[in-house]
């Protein structure tokens, strides 16, 4: 059961009302996560800006989704995990790679290395080494793509933690 209520453009106030009104006018409706985030215009605005920015990330979408699966498996947001598994399938990631992403790895050594980096950013960024970054470059990742990992992790922490706090689950029909 959700812990926080959904807001609409009619029930939200201030900046949240403006943000929700704009989203509803562009998309017709917004999901439970976005409408619940509207309790905090700072959180909603930050989420929308980070989400838009990460849409321009240099990382391949299939890799980004595998990173998200690895993060959400550990963070425990089932709503986010389900959304990222579905998105990975839509980008053509096969079931074996999805299962490996749950385990935090891949059959492809380059993808396994970038997932490992993302998990370190999530759990223990002080443990990242120069050798890891050099190895990622040797796998063909640009500095921009490597930096984008931090954004993917941050977006997952934000959405997963918010959904867990708000009590949003796949059963509540919310979005991630």
Give your account of this protein's structure.
Helices cover 67% and strands 0% of the residues. The chain is mostly helical and 176 residues long. Helix 4 (61-75) packs antiparallel against helix 5 (78-90), helix 4 (61-75) crosses helix 7 (109-123) and helix 7 (109-123) packs across helix 9 (143-166). The model has no long low-confidence stretch (mean pLDDT 95).
How would you summarize the topology of this molecule?
Elements lengths: L13 H14 L4 H6 L3 H14 L6 H15 L2 H13 L4 H8 L6 H15 L6 H9 L4 H24 L10
Helix pairs in contact: 3-9, 4-5, 4-6, 4-7, 4-9, 7-9
Mean pLDDT figure:
95
Q: Helix and strand string, N-terminal first?
A: HHHHHHHHH
Identify low-pLDDT runs: none
In DSSP terms (H or I, runs of 4 or more residues), the helix count works out at 9
In angstroms, what separates the terminal alpha carbons? Answer: 16 Å
* Class based on secondary structure composition and strand pairing: mainly alpha
Roughly how much helix do the residues carry, as a percent range? 55-70%
Please tell me how large the radius of gyration is: 17 Å
| Largest β-sheet summary | none
Q: Would you count the extended β strands for me? A: 0
Q: Give the amount of beta strand, in percent.
A: under 5%
Rough outline? elongated
